[in-house]
Specification:
Helices cover about 30% and strands about 35% of the residues. It is rod-shaped. α2 packs antiparallel against α4. The protein is α+β, with helices and mostly antiparallel strands.
Length: about 210
C-alpha cells in the first residue's frame, strides 16, 4: 500500500534589530528584535513551502512578543532570514525528480547506443528479447514476447535459437533471463534460424528486437 507523508510545523527566524523600544510587558526600554513566525508545509519533507508568515517584535529584556505590521519589515530581509531549504525546498524536490529523469534518459540513450553496436557485431551468447509475432505470417497472438540466442556467427550471417515459450509482457522474458531459467539447454528449440547480420539492425529499428543482453 502506498502512503503519502505530509504535514506541517511552526518555525521562526530572526530578521534583524528593531532598535531600542519600550516594552509594555516589563515596562522597560530594551533592545527589540524583529522576528518572523511561519509555518512549513511539506510532502515527505522534500517538497516544502512557507505559509502563514507573521511578523512580531521580541523584547530583549523579558522576551515578550508583540505583533508587528508586515509593512514594517523589508521583504528582502525576511527572505534572507528564512533558511533556503524552508523557502525553496519545493524547487529542490522538483530538481531531484528532474535529475532522476535526466539520468534515466542518459542511461536509456547509452543502452540504445550499446544495442545498436551489438546488432552490427553480434557475438555468440547474445540474447535478443524479441516479439516473434512480428516474424510470423500467422502468429498465435499479436504479442509473442520471447528470447532468441545467438549460437553462431558465420561471415555475414548469424545463427539463432528461439525460446520454446513466449509471454505477453516483457517482464516474463526479463524474469527468465535474470533468474537463469533462460540458460537451461531445453529453454530453446533445437532448430536453428539463419539470417543476414544486416537484418538484425532492421529488426532493432522496427522494434522487433526490444533489448539485447550481452
Amino acid at each position: 500500500m502506498f502512503f503519502i507523508s505530509w504535514g506541517s510545523k511552526g518555525a521562526f527566524a530572526h530578521v534583524g534589530s528593531a532598535g531600542i523600544l519600550h516594552c509594555n510587558r516589563c515596562d522597560h526600554d530594551a533592545p527589540f528584535a524583529k522576528m518572523i513566525a511561519y509555518r512549513i508545509r511539506h510532502i515527505y519533507w522534500i517538497f516544502r513551502w512557507i505559509t502563514d508568515r507573521t511578523p512580531y517584535l521580541s523584547c530583549g529584556n523579558c522576551g515578550a512578543e508583540h505583533l508587528a505590521d508586515h509593512d514594517a519589515y523589508d521583504a528582502q530581509e525576511v527572505r534572507a532570514a528564512i533558511p533556503f531549504w524552508d523557502r525553496r525546498g519545493w524547487t529542490v524536490g522538483l530538481g531531484a525528480i528532474g535529475s532522476v529523469f535526466a539520468l534515466g534518459s542518459i542511461a536509456a540513450a547509452a543502452d540504445s547506443a550499446a544495442d545498436s553496436g551489438y546488432v552490427q557485431a553480434p557475438h555468440v551468447g547474445d540474447v535478443y528479447e524479441t516479439n516473434i509475432a512480428q516474424l510470423l505470417k500467422n502468429p498465435e497472438a499479436p504479442m509473442m514476447l520471447s528470447a532468441m540466442r545467438v549460437t553462431g556467427v558465420k561471415g555475414e550471417a548469424v545463427e539463432l535459437q528461439v525460446a520454446n515459450t513466449y509471454y505477453t509482457d516483457w517482464r516474463g522474458v526479463d524474469r527468465d533471463l535474470d533468474n537463469g531459467k533462460a540458460a537451461a539447454p531445453d529453454y530453446y528449440a533445437q532448430d536453428r534460424l539463419v539470417i543476414p547480420v544486416a537484418n538484425l539492425k532492421r529488426m532493432r529499428d522496427e522494434g522487433v528486437i526490444h533489448d539485447i543482453r550481452r
